[in-house]
Amino acid sequence: MSTTTPTRAAATRGDAPTCDRATLEDLTDRVVRRTMAMDLAWDWPAGVAFYGVSQAWNATGKDEYLAYLKGWADERFERGLPKFTVNAVSIGHSLLTLHAATGDEKYLSVAQEMAEFLSKDAVRFGEGVFQHTVSQNYNFPEQAWADTLFMAALFLLRIGTKTGNKAYMADALEQYRWHETFLQDESSNLCFHAWDNIGKNNLSGVYWGRANAWIAITSAEALTHINAMNPAFMRIGDALRDQLAALVRVQTPAGLWRTVLTDETAYEETSASAGIGAALVIYSRVFNYDIYQAAIARAFAGVASKIDTDGTVRGVSAGTAVMPDVQAYKDIPAKRIQGWGQGLTLAFLAALIAGC
Questions:
Q1: Terminus of the chain with fewer CB atoms < 10 Å: N or C?
Q2: How many C-beta neighbours within 10 Å does residue 18 have?
Q3: What's the rounded mean pLDDT across residues 247-270?
Q4: What is the model's pLDDT at position 9?
Q5: What is the per-residue pLDDT for 19?
Q6: Is 238 a catalytic residue?
Q7: What local confidence, expressed as pLDDT, does residue 14 receive?
C-alpha cells in the first residue's frame, strides 16, 4: 500500500475536502501512469479508464496524458475497429476529449459512428430502453443494468450536446428516465444492479455498490450538460438528491462504501467509493451546496488510502454480473488492478482538483 497516503488531518480542512493541489496532482499522476502501463483493448474497461484519464487531463492540462490517449486511439484506428457494443461505446468519452483538445475530425467522426450505432442498431426493449450488452457474445435479454447509463447514455448526451443533435439528447434523457424508473428503489432511494423486463423484477434485488456509483456519477455529470430549465434537469437532480442522501448514510467510518451497501459484513470497495465521491463533488458544485463536505473529505481519505505508491488502485471488485444473492456479491474478488477502478478514482481526483 501507499506509504504517502494523506492522513485524515491532511485530507480535511474543518471537514472540507483538501484543496492541496500538489497532493491531488501527485495522486492523479501516479494513477494515470499506472493506467497507461495497462494493456487495454477496445472495450469498456478501457472506456472507463480513459474517461478518468480524460478527466485528469481536463483538470491538470498535462500534455503527457493527452498524448497517451491520442497514441492509443490512433493505433487502434490504424488496426481497424471492432464491432460496436453498448458497453464499448464508452470509448467515445475519450474521443470527445481528443476532438475538443486537438480539433482533429477523425475522433468526432468515430464518436458519431458510435452514436449512430446506439440510435439505430443497439438492441432495445420496451419503450426503447438499451439492453445491457457487455460484448458480442454476452447479451442479457430485456435487462437494463446500471452500467449502461455511464457507458452509453452519458456518452449520447455528451455528443448530442456537443453537436447540437437534439435526437441524441432526447434519447439519452429517456435512458435516464427509464433506468431511474427500473433501478431506483422508491423506499430506500438506493439503486438495484439491474432490471429484468421479462420477469418484471430486479433479479436478486441487491443494492450493489458500483451500480450506485454508475448511476450517481452519471446523473451528476448529466446535470452539467442539461439546461436547468429542462424538465429532465429537475427529474435527474431530484433522483440524485435522494440517492446521495441515502448513500451518505451507509458510508463507512473509513469513508468508503461496501460492495453490498447495506451489509456490514461486505467488504469496502474502492471503485464504488470513488464514483460516489465524484458524484458528491459534482452535485455539490452544480447546486453550490456545502452539505456534503464532510462525506467528501472522508471519501477522499478512504480512496487515497487505497492508492499504491505505483498508482495501482486496490480494493476494486472484479467484473460482476448480476449475482444470485448477497453472498455471491461478497465473494467477488477484489485483488487485481481494474480499468474501472483506475478510471473512477481519476474521475474523483479530477473533480476535487477542479474545485481547487
A1: N
A2: 20
A3: 98
A4: 32
A5: 77
A6: no
A7: 34
Q: Is the CB of residue 157 less than 8 Å from the CB of residue 164? A: no
Residue 279 φ/ψ, nearest 5 degrees: -60, -40
For residue 13, pLDDT over 60 is answered with no
* Lowest mean per-residue pLDDT among 4-18, 169-183, 278-292, 324-338: 4-18
At 260, list the grid cell. Answer: 453490498
Q: Distance between CA 143 and CA 211 in Å, rounded?
A: 14
Name the pLDDT band for 7 (thresholds 50, 70, 90): very low
Residue in 63, 147, 171, 308 annotated catalytic: 147
Please give the grid coordinates belonging to residue 215.
448511476
Instruction: Output phi, psi for 184, to 5 deg.
Output: -90, 120
